[in-house]
Specification:
Number of strands: 19
Order of helices and strands: EEEEHHEEEEEEEEEEEHHEEEEHHH
Largest sheet: 9 strands, antiparallel
Shape: elongated
Strand content: 25-35%
Length: about 350
């Protein structure tokens, strides 16, 4: 019943439901209208507690023994707590890739609970949720935090001067994000209600927060490996590769490689290609790069091969990291672009790579 883990994430905000006692109603007596004037505010009716239920049960037993008056009082109390029919419309910018899970806030235990709901129905077309419940108070909709993980593919490529396009193909959504020096912009998906987020330039952390709030979570937490099957990798090596990719992203495109998941914990394999245009990389231009703690080099095998074979491309050298591997075969124009790349741009790109952990969660 209790949801204390991060396996679920709230989406679409919180709905606050209150049950209020009606103030004294006006009465018409002849030509007069009599109205009681009260100075107090509207009175909220709290949820019944286990202690209340216990006391009411004891009253019922006592009333039955004494002739029934208390029993009638208990019956009245029970009738004041029927199942209430409720419905509400989720926020227009909330994305649910599966039927949402209702939860209510249990203040006495400081946690969300998923019990206490009956006949729950989610109308995906109208974005409405209807249900029956005896409980009132804060109610929200949950969905699986990791329903978009592991990722199916990813790519990051230059798009003109000082800009890259980051594409992330997740289990149920495909994101395309433009990343510049000081801001980011969500370009797609276009078939979801994301008008409050899409096509707006925002700081990276703000856009990430808005995506999660809308129900699109592509940012693994520290314990995400408990809920998602991942490619276990050396953390220090993974961080180093993200940094090198960000350094080279203004002139080189990077992409997911089919060989990375099975190449071992002490190794990362990524695809890369020089790209100084705004167009996607031609498939035959991609090369696989092997990144290890003490060396990096260009692999002879490609993603089109039936099996992976660990051979270095003839005529190339071993390097301490992938950045210097790329510079070895780079054009003079690409080297100039890398030299003039802003450090704030590199930092913004690395922010997205570290946040999504594409090398581990793809």
């Amino acid at each position: 019943w209790y949801q204390r883990r991060v396996a679920f994430t709230a989406g679409g905000g919180v709905m606050y439901l209150d049950l209020l006692k009606l103030p004294p109603q006006a009465k018409k007596v002849g030509n007069w209208v009599i109205q009681d004037i009260t100075e107090s505010e509207l009175e909220r009716i709290p949820n019944p507690t286990p202690e209340d239920e216990k006391e009411e049960t004891e009253e019922t037993k006592e009333g039955e023994e004494n002739g029934g008056e208390a029993a009638i009082t208990q019956l009245t109390k029970e009738l004041t707590w029927p199942l209430l029919n409720m419905s509400f419309t989720v926020a227009s910018n909330a994305v649910f890739t599966e039927e949402p899970q209702l939860a209510r806030w249990e203040d006495s235990q400081q946690c969300w609970r998923t019990d206490g709901f009956e006949d729950v129905n989610f109308d995906e077309t109208n974005g409405t949720i209807s249900f029956k419940s005896q409980f009132i108070g804060p109610i929200c909709t949950f969905q699986d935090t990791y329903n978009n993980m592991p990722f199916q593919s990813w790519e990051i490529r230059p798009y003109g001067q000082g800009c890259v396009i980051f594409t992330l193909i997740a289990a149920s959504v495909e994101l395309e994000i433009s990343i510049k020096e000081n801001a980011c912009c969500l370009n797609s998906p276009e078939d979801m209600e994301l008008d409050g987020i899409r096509n707006k330039w925002l700081p990276a952390h703000i856009l990430m927060q808005k995506l999660v709030a809308a129900g699109i979570n592509v940012f693994p937490s520290e314990d995400a490996d408990k809920y998602v099957s991942i490619s276990v990798k050396d953390e220090e090596l993974e961080s180093s590769v993200y940094e090198q990719m960000a350094l080279a992203s203004s002139a080189f495109a990077f992409s997911w490689s089919r060989w990375n998941a099975d190449c071992g914990e002490k190794r990362q394999i990524v695809r890369a290609a020089e790209n100084l245009t705004t167009h996607p990389v031609d498939e035959d231009m991609w090369k696989n790069y092997s990144c290890e703690p003490r060396k990096s080099y260009v692999l002879k095998c490609t993603d089109d091969d039936d099996e992976m074979f660990d051979e270095k491309v003839e005529g190339t050298q071993f390097h301490p990291d992938i950045f210097h591997c790329l510079k070895e075969g780079a054009s003079s124009e690409a080297v100039d672009v890398l030299t003039n790349t802003s450090y704030t741009f590199v930092d913004n790109v690395s922010t997205w790579l570290f946040a999504t952990k594409v090398l581990t969660f793809s």
